[in-house]
Design brief:
The chain is built from four helices and no strands. With 91 residues, it is mostly helical. It has one domain. The chain is elongated, with a radius of gyration of 22 Å. It binds zinc ion.
Length: 91
């Protein structure tokens, strides 16, 4: 099995998605046992997955999606008033 197919399937497995057609857990593990490159890739992908899910949980815990901080509201309002650079502000 090609390394690229193995990595696509590994990434699906990490996401809890279905493996691509023709790929089984057994074949993936057999390839990992024989291919140090994919083993390393798989470890890095798993670590990255843990980091991003930890970051998402932290963001949800602090509720970054719905800012209700007055200072932040003021900043956002100022940004909107000033407009984006180069948007043809009227004089
Ligand atoms: Zn490989």
């Amino acid at each position: 099995m090609q390394c690229s197919r193995v990595r696509t399937a590994l990434s699906a497995r990490l996401d809890g998605e279905q493996l691509p057609p023709g790929v089984t857990d057994g074949r993936l593990d057999a390839h990992l046992a024989a291919c140090a490159d994919c083993r390393r890739w798989s470890e890095q992908a798993a670590r990255l997955r843990r980091l991003t899910s930890a970051a998402r949980e932290a963001a949800e815990a602090t509720d970054l999606s719905a800012p209700d901080d007055p200072a932040l509201d003021g900043l956002l309002g100022r940004l909107r008033r000033d407009g984006a650079p180069g948007d043809g502000r009227q004089v």
